[in-house]
């Protein structure tokens, strides 16, 4: 089996900067259950990265998985009679085994939209259907950036989502499992993006950025609905109740110091995005159909099943994705040009009967 793959950035190893901070943290005893100096420093480092004031009422809570982060964010923002507008391809709706509904006791309202981006006209349909006490109340709109199809909401699209949320008193959740890839591709500083979208909660992804296992549920207080001011301990109780308050929490936090130190995660994201661009270019040169706009570190291509199987037989790992003959190739922080060259060589062999040499 080839050592580096195009299946997922989850397959990649840990960034050296993250290992360094884990090692530094592993030298002494420290208080447990997120009551330690490393956790506090990591929280402030994240808020500073997002351009938030040090004395704000914002909150950051570390959990080990993206599903935990998404569920904690939505449960904190909502009541059991509330609903979340999301895309039908969103991770929330397709890949979390109903965790938001089971643990947060909320209803997910899927919408369609090209390239896995919410069509706001369809979102309006959900908003118009609510009829008092007889229906779930649309409380949150959740977007993913980059989307599950590797695409990006443009700045004007983010502004429009903010306008929709303001018009209907919706809270905004941002699933940022690959947030670093998004800001690298959009060429925007995190504080500027936060100012535009004003998300009330962010599932900030660390694992796909190069960490071992850490995600941050970030709650930003823009003074709307007083959802945190009413019960500021709500996310802490929910995290504990769901079994995600890690006793040695400092090891989740330390990974963020490695990710954000000297912009390590952002540099890694720039590299992954760049490698995806090179991969896309070589695929295009070989007449492989690119099915989606390549905007971050994912390339979606069309292959026949026997062609994909031939590549699997050569030891390559990648996923079929959502639709027949659609396959996702994903680059990582450690992808090299030689990986792309080897894949293209094997791809030429696998598709020779259809596309020629």
Automatic annotation (TrEMBL):
The cofactors required by this protein are: pyridoxal 5'-phosphate
What EC number(s) does the entry state?
4.1.2.48
Which residues are in the Aromatic amino acid beta-eliminating lyase/threonine aldolase domain? 5-302
Alphabetized GO MF terms:
lyase activity
Q: Which biological process terms from the Gene Ontology are attached to this UniProt entry?
A: amino acid metabolic process
Keywords on record: Lyase, Pyridoxal phosphate
Q: What class of enzyme is it?
A: lyase
Q: What PANTHER family does the entry give?
A: L-THREONINE ALDOLASE-RELATED, LOW SPECIFICITY L-THREONINE ALDOLASE
Similarity annotation: Belongs to the threonine aldolase family.
Record's protein name = Low specificity L-threonine aldolase
Annotated gene: ltaE
């Amino acid at each position: 089996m080839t050592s580096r793959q195009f299946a997922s950035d989850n397959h990649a190893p840990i960034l050296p900067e993250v290992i360094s901070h884990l090692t530094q943290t592993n030298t002494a005893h420290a208080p447990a259950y997120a009551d330690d100096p490393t956790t506090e420093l990591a929280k402030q480092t994240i808020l500073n990265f997002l351009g938030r004031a040090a004395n704000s009422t914002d909150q950051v809570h570390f959990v080990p998985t993206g599903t935990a982060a998404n569920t904690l964010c939505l449960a904190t923002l909502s009541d059991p009679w509330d609903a979340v507008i999301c895309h039908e391809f969103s991770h929330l709706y397709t890949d979390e085994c109903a965790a938001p509904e089971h643990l947060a006791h909320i209803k997910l309202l899927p919408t369609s939209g090209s390239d896995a981006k919410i069509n706001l006209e369809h979102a309006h349909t959900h908003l118009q259907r609510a009829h008092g006490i007889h229906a779930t109340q649309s409380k949150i709109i959740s977007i993913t950036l980059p989307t599950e199809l590797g695409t990006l909401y443009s700045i004007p699209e983010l502004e429009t989502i903010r306008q929709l949320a303001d018009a209907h008193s919706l809270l905004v959740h941002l699933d940022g499992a690959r947030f670093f890839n998004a800001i690298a591709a959009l060429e925007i500083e995190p504080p500027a993006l936060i100012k535009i979208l004003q998300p009330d909660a962010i599932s900030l992804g660390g694992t796909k950025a190069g960490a071992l296992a850490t995600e941050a549920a970030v709650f930003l207080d823009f003074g709307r609905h007083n959802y945190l001011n009413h019960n500021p301990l709500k996310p802490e109780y929910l995290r504990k109740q769901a079994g995600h308050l890690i006793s040695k929490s400092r090891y989740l936090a330390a990974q963020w110091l490695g990710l954000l130190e000297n912009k390590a995660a952002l540099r890694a994201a720039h590299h992954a995005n760049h490698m995806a661009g090179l991969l896309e270019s070589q695929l295009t040169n070989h007449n492989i159909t690119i099915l989606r706009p390549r905007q971050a570190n994912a390339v979606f291509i069309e292959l026949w099943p026997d062609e994909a199987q031939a590549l699997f037989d050569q030891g390559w790992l990648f996923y079929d994705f959502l639709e027949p003959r659609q396959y996702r190739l994903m680059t990582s922080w450690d992808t090299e040009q030689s990986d792309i060259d080897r894949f293209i060589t094997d791809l030429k062999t696998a598709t020779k009967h259809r596309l020629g040499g």
